[in-house]
Amino acid sequence: MSTEPSNSKDPKSVYDFTLKDGMGNDVDLATYKGKVLLIVNVASKCGMTNSNYVGLNQLYDKYKLKGLEILAFPSNQFGEEEPGTNDQILDFVCTHFKSEFPIFDKVIQHIIFKLETLVFLTCSLPSSYFVDGED
C-alpha cells in the first residue's frame, strides 16, 4: 500500500522528499518550505483517536494562517490501530472530524528521513515531530 518516498540521493531536509497523499497523489514536501510542520502518526482505532483529532483540528484552525501545516501519517504498526484502507481512513477522518490538514498514504514500512548522519524523523515511532520553517 505505501510506497517508498522518492527523494534525492543525499537528502538534507524534510523538504527533499516527495510522498504520496491518501489519494495516491505525489506531494513534494518542498511546497511546505517556510511553514512550521507538525508531522504526526495517526490511527482511527486508537483509544485517543477522538481527542487527538479534535486537538489537531483545534491546533490547525488556530495556527494555519500563521504558517502551521499538519501532515498526518496513518499507520497500522502500533497495536494494529489503523487497519483501514486509505479510502476508509480518509472517509473516517473527513466524516467524523472534518479535518482539513493533509492525510498521507498509510505508512506500512518505516520511512526515515536523514539530516546528514542524524535521523531527525521516523514514522516508526508513535510520535509527533515539529519541523521549523527553515532549511
TrEMBL record:
Keyword Hydrolase applies: no
Protein name in the entry: Glutathione peroxidase
GO biological process, one term: response to oxidative stress
Gene3D superfamilies referenced in this protein's UniProt entry, alphabetically: Glutaredoxin
Entry keywords, A to Z: Oxidoreductase, Peroxidase
Annotated InterPro entries: Glutathione_peroxidase (IPR000889), GPX_AS (IPR029759), GPX_CS (IPR029760), Thioredoxin-like_sf (IPR036249)
Species of provenance: Medicago truncatula
Record GO terms (molecular function): peroxidase activity
Family: Belongs to the glutathione peroxidase family.
